[in-house]
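Reopening: structure tokens for the 2-acetamido-2-deoxy-beta-D-glucopyranose complex, inputs below.
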Amino acid sequence: MRPAPSLLGFALWPSLAATRSIRATTAFENKCLQFRPEGSVRNATRTELQFVKAGTRVALADNDPSCNTDGQAVTADLCRVAMSIPTSNRSSITYEMWLPETWSGRFLATGNGGIGGCVEYENLAYGTANGFATVGTNNGHNGTNGDTFYQNEDVVADFGWRSLHTSVEVGKKLAALFYSEAVSKSYFIGCSLGGRQGIHSAELFPEDFDGIVAGAPAVDFNNLYSSRARYFTITGAEGAPSFISAGTWKTTIHDEVLRQCDGLDGAMDGIIEDPTLCKFQAETLLCGTNQEGDCLSDAQVQTVTKVFSNYLWQNGSMLYPAMQPGSEILAAGGLYSGKPYGPSVGWFKFAVLEDLAWDPASFTTDDALTAGQKDPGGIRTWPSSLAAFEGRGGKILTYHGQQDQQITSFNSPRFYEHLAAGMGYVPAQMDRFYRLFRIPGMGHCNGGPGAWVVGQAGSTAARGIPYDREHNVLAAVVDWVEKGMAPEALVGTKYANDTVDSGIAYRHTHCKYPAKSTFKGGDRKPSEVDSWECL
Ligand SMILES: *[C@@H]1O[C@H](CO)[C@@H](O)[C@H](O)[C@H]1NC(C)=O
Ligand SMILES: *[C@@H]1O[C@H](CO)[C@@H](O)[C@H](O)[C@H]1NC(C)=O
Ligand SMILES: *[C@@H]1O[C@H](CO)[C@@H](O)[C@H](O)[C@H]1NC(C)=O
Ligand SMILES: *[C@@H]1O[C@H](CO)[C@@H](O)[C@H](O)[C@H]1NC(C)=O
Ligand SMILES: *[C@@H]1O[C@H](CO)[C@@H](O)[C@H](O)[C@H]1NC(C)=O
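Re-run output (same inputs, fresh job):
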């Protein structure tokens, strides 16, 4: 924290200090309203300049309706800047920078999700609440469907890498101008597409960040989108013989998954600690003669077997890993819903095939091959080395929910092993700069029956937990970068009913890959944090 020097001498005189602090706030407000960021960013147009008081809500009336946010609560006094910044003669980004009055000297960039162009306002609020000068962008387009990728490679390039990189270059420069002091350290936080953005940045622009929090990273992006497009061709539409209703996924199949695999970790608690150990056999659910109800037809058994098997190229090599057992409760309403998966449809229609009449039911591995060969915007993100990033001291903290219903959690160990092999590293060497934490019972980026609150995002996920390296991933990466205190394990929090005000239900230790959380056994309770160890 860096209070204005003029305040320091008055700390012991409450009345005077109070007067001073009112005047200091006014001074900050004036400084904000006099800021002219557009003068320092080529061709930029300023669209907002606003002093925002802690405890108020920023109105976002212009935000694209598909982004589902028309306002953001703010807990720190800050200066909000928004600009439109051209990135080519046919593309531009919407740029937001929130500059807190109480600044730690740190910079934070935030990611995006899906194929979308939604600014993560909750993470702008989260960053500023913790003293970071924080930026976010629309990733080059508004809304969630990606139609402006069509016949515009510049919009795709913004989405693939340029929007984030531009926001970092502009952000570091503007923070220095605004505070009259250079940024001390630079960080990134994002999940899903955002996780991919963080890792891609470490690959392409190793100078941009000192520390990166990359949740459930959508690395190997084209193959991920192919695997997502494929689910509709596996399940078929509602009513097809291969289709399975949400109710059957959530009860019949999920119950059988737990029956076969919940106890593998020694605790029957409804959570599979390490789904890689679960070799689910769907045949046990095949209906017997004249049996009806809690059982599956042949075609349905095939559906289950396919989603829980690796997706292979025709030559038998891996295209993308299987979905992990345990995620079916949440995937039932999404990837297995019998409807084409929206973001995959958008990616293929607008960016890969550029065919507005494309029929998602026609998807095959030929389309997957086209996606990989075209690699729109250079988005793939599958580096076999991050030596330049590591070499300048960069750190990546990554985590993945083990019930992720959108990006199989098996892809994160796969990427870890790929990177380790490429760099010739054993885990002790990976530990120097890249640490993966598997989070049992967590869905995609958040949610689920596990202790999933680890400070990964602003809205619900960070409130109520201590902002320290044990409980909060952002605090953890900061201490790793600045104090050399590397995270060994993370303690996740589960709120009763996922509601902070209802209190903490339990805490759980999440282990650093390749270790896994192991029940100590005996008459210990699975819900107690000390009942588990990382082995
Ligand atoms: C900035 O605007 C000028 C004049 O309109 C144009 O010539 C130039 O290409 C623009 N630069 C960028 C980076 O868009
Ligand atoms: C995107 O939305 C912002 C408001 O959030 C608006 O200022 C901008 O013009 C929009 N961009 C496009 C390309 O429509
Ligand atoms: C945009 O710039 C490119 C060169 O970078 C040029 O080929 C193209 O004609 C320009 N497009 C427009 C619409 O001005
Ligand atoms: C299998 O096919 C894929 C897609 O064409 C290709 O990328 C991969 O290298 C092939 N693997 C082998 C072992 O030939
Ligand atoms: C959680 O929600 C249920 C049902 O709404 C309620 O009965 C229960 O009391 C809640 N638990 C807490 C700790 O608030």
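The pocket of 2-acetamido-2-deoxy-beta-D-glucopyranose (ligand 4) is lined by residues 313, 315, 317, 369 (CB under 6 Å). Residues 153-179 form the longest helix (27 residues). Marking as resolved unless the reporter disagrees.
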